[in-house]
């Protein structure tokens, strides 16, 4: 009877041990699956897909999109300059100007936001536009204090209040204006010509231009109603081409502006070339086998090591498995350190 009880107890103990081992193994499998699904991140597919980190692939994609767009634009702009300079038929000039204007209107889509309105490269962050406001200029020059309430309508209404102190300097008033309008994504600054220039993300410009209203205390703005704030964009190639379309007979007067735009594009392409070279150097530095044939030599060397009697294959296998179980954050930090 006692033997039977001891046997049953031993069997029960063995079953509990097997369940505990199975639970541990299941936990390890779950952790392993989680590790596989969370790292590495899926890379961005560029025109030339690479197997490196996401940040590098984003840079490559942005560079390629900006380069492709600027090359197309340079070609069309050069052609327009040539036919205007040669005094070709006005219909030919107008047709080429229309083609170029269509390309400029598609800038955001074709360049994926990597080229701004002034044809400058934007590889990080969002493209911005500059604008002016005669009303804000007068507001900054006033000495009277005033509480202003701004309203930006559209899909949703945003309201911002701010107070301009009495007897304050224009730069002090601009600082107060920035504190309030900054919550709408607007920032003002003095340029090299001592003009106040305001900046906002290009994606928000259309809404701002059509829906920014303000009311005050009766000094600069009325007290009882909101009035639309008048804004105007900084001059750009887009506007000049519009003028040529409207009046092709005066196209020759825009040759200097077109030439300046071509120079701007050339500078940006030169900068892109330098950036592409730097990225290429980074890729070369990250390459495991930079020279042809080194991968085969490495595989032969590994074969020789595994064939050596002094080296235990099981030990090597355990070491490799151990590398696979390193925490995700550690692996990412190591990769970023070599990037």
Notes on the protein architecture:
The protein is of the alpha+beta class. Among the domains are: 54-119 and 238-276; 128-235, Immunoglobulin-like, CATH 2.60.40. It contains 12 helices and 8 strands. The strands form 2 sheets. The protein has a 4-stranded antiparallel sheet. A hairpin with a 5-residue loop joins strand 2 (146-152) and strand 3. Helix 2 (54-85) packs antiparallel against helix 3 (90-105), helix 2 (54-85) runs antiparallel to helix 9 and helix 3 (90-105) packs antiparallel against helix 8. It is flat and about 90 Å long. Residues 1-11 and 28-50 have low confidence and may be disordered.
Q: State the CATH class of the domain at 128-235.
A: Mainly Beta
Q: Give the SSE string.
A: HHHHEHEEHEEHEEEHHHHH
**Strand content range:** 5-15%
CATH topology of the domain at 128-235: Immunoglobulin-like
End-to-end Cα distance: 71 Å
- Overall pLDDT metric: 79
Q: Residue ranges: pLDDT <50 for 5 or more in a row?
A: 1-11, 28-50
Query: What would you say the CATH architecture of the domain at 128-235 is?
Result: Sandwich
DSSP strand tally: 8
Largest sheet: 4 strands, antiparallel
Secondary-structure class: alpha+beta
Q: Number of helical runs? A: 12
Strand order of the largest sheet: 4-5-1-8
Rg, rounded, reads 33 Å
């Amino acid at each position: 009877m006692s033997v039977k009880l001891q046997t049953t107890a031993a069997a029960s103990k063995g079953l509990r041990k097997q369940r505990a081992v199975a639970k541990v193994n299941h936990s390890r499998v779950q952790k392993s699956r989680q590790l596989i699904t969370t790292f590495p991140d899926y890379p961005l597919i560029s025109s030339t897909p690479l197997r490196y980190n996401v940040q590098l692939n984003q840079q490559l994609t942005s560079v390629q999109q900006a380069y492709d767009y600027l090359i197309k634009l340079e070609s069309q702009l050069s052609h327009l300059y040539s036919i205007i300079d040669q005094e070709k038929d006005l219909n030919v000039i107008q047709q080429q100007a229309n083609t170029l204007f269509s390309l400029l209107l598609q800038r955001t889509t074709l360049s994926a936001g990597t080229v701004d309105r002034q044809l400058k490269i934007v590889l990080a962050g969002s493209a911005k536009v500059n604008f002016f406001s005669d009303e804000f200029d007068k507001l900054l020059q006033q000495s009277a204090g005033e509480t202003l309430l701004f309203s930006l309508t559209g899909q949703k209404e945003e309201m911002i209040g701010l107070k301009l102190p009495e007897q304050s300097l224009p730069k002090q008033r601009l600082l107060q204006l920035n504190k309030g309008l900054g919550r709408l994504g607007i920032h003002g600054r003095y340029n090299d010509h001592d003009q106040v220039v305001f900046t906002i993300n290009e994606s928000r410009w259309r809404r701002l231009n059509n829906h920014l209203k303000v009311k005050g205390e009766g000094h600069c703005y009325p007290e009882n109603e909101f009035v639309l704030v008048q804004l105007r964009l900084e001059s750009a190639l887009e506007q000049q081409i519009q003028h040529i379309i409207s009046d092709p007979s005066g196209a020759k007067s825009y040759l200097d502006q077109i030439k300046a735009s071509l120079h701007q594009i050339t500078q940006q392409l030169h900068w892109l070339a330098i950036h592409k070279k730097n990225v290429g150097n980074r890729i070369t530095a990250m390459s495991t086998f930079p020279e042809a044939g080194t991968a085969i030599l490495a595989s032969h060397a590994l074969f020789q090591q595994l064939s050596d009697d002094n080296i235990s294959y099981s030990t090597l296998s355990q070491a490799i498995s151990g590398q696979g179980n390193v925490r995700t954050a550690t692996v990412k930090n190591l990769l970023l350190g070599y990037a």
